[in-house]
Amino acid sequence: MVIFERLANRGFALDIFSKKFQKNPYQTYSKMRSINPIYHSKPTFLRWVTKMSLVQEMLRDERFSVDDRKYPIAKLRRKELARDGRDIMLDQFENPSILKLDPPDHSRIRKLVSYGFTNRYIKSLETQIDETIDQCLDFTHNQDQFDLMGVLAKPLPAIVIAKMMGLPDSDLNQFQTWSENLLQEVGGIGSSVRKRKLARDAYEDLIRYFEKIIIERKDNPGDDFIGKLIQAEEEGDKLNVKEMYGTCLLLLIAGHETTTRLIGNGLYSLMKNPDQYELIKKDFSLIPNAIEEMLRYEPPVHATVRFAYADMDYEGKFYKRGTPFAISIAGANRDPEANKHPNEFNILREHVKHVSFGYGPHMCIGASLARIESKLVFEKIFERFPDLKLLESEPNWQKNFIFRGFDNLLVKTH
Predict the structure, then answer these.
(1) How confident is the model at residue 291 (pLDDT cuts 50, 70, 90)?
(2) Around 196, how many Cα atoms within 13 Å sit in the side-chain half-sphere?
(3) What is the dihedral of CA 329, 260, 258, 398, to 10 degrees?
(4) pLDDT tens digits for 343-391?
């Protein structure tokens, strides 16, 4: 199908399997935007939206739905999960997290979940996060090179979330393994049968894990995130058990994996742009704005999906109910109408415009936590390793068109 797409578009086609796309997808997004800001890619069965104004509109417009249970794709999903004996996944598909819910269900659950994400509570975690960063970096003592992902970017968010949830330290390694295995199926390019099984086993193991913890703590919830979920109440409304499972799973994937990639992608972008790196090392007050530019330039999440809620006319074309759209976060961030010179990494950029934490009702509820974690990470790294450099000039990007980041990022300290 890629061949036919090239014939139709004068030699161009979206090929998510190509090494060129994996290395630099932004050239592809730019070309798609120039051909049509709502680009129909037949091989992926998606309409890719790469223009910032349209992306923002579709993310806040109730004509575009996240609830895939309502559309033809759901029939295939249910059949596949039932055939594979994935009863737990099937049950959670029918009882999704807020990530897959439209208003009013989304609004109701988000309001209750927000009790675990008050600014006061997130701010109270700073000292603990700072200590955890030091503990991670202490493993590099007397080493002149190390893997930034393995030492810090992967374990830190997992530790922070585990502590937020009140989970025992002894479960941390298993927690991180489950998280990494889950992503084998979420946007993974060419995932094998074995990797898909690993992902689904991890999903079901996590649901069983959270089920056990939540049931055990019903009568003595505590003051951590899971305790706050159990106690959360608004006008007599409380989260049911399955909603809690979905929320815990979402926090693991979104909170852990997004922050891991923000740290890795951000430091990579700095080290690939030495002039910007020098600026930030001399003035730590630039870090907050630099984080926004990192999020814009190399976002951890590249796309999300929406469906036409009903038959509709949009931007001069007719779309049937259930038509899937790939909302290209990365494409929108590099739209020249949104940010001048979008392919330049500039930590001094004024009014950085990005949708890397979403937009509208589905704006990431944990964005403030990710910003605090990454800010503390960058301050500590620049303080302890002022001469940090890449050991490999072109490290390998993961084969995933939803999450973008590295498995390994080797650095040298001088």
Answers:
(1) very high
(2) 10
(3) 50
(4) 999 999 999 999 999 999 999 988 999 999 999 999 999 999 999 999 9
Alpha-helical runs (H) found in 232-366:
241-250, 258-271, 274-282, 287-297, 329-333
Q: DSSP class of residue 222? A: -
Structural domains in the chain plus CATH codes: 2-412 (1.10.630.10)
Distances (CA, A) of 140 to 133, 136, 144, 151, 265: 12, 8, 8, 8, 20
Residues 45-62: what's their mean pLDDT? 96
CA distance 151 to 132: 11
Peptide bond into 300 cis (omega under 30): no
pTM: 0.93
How far is it, in rounded angstroms, from Cα 182 to Cα 179? Answer: 5
CB 28 within 8 A of CB 11: no
Task: Single out the residue of 23, 34, 51, 74 nearest to residue 327, CA to CA.
Answer: 51
Q: Which residues contact 83 (CB under 8 A, 6 or more apart)?
A: none
Looking at residue 343, the DSSP 8-state letter turns out to be T
Q: What is the pLDDT of residues 111-160, one digit of tens each?
A: 888 877 888 888 888 999 999 999 999 988 888 999 999 999 998 998 88
Q: What is the DSSP letter of 337?
A: T
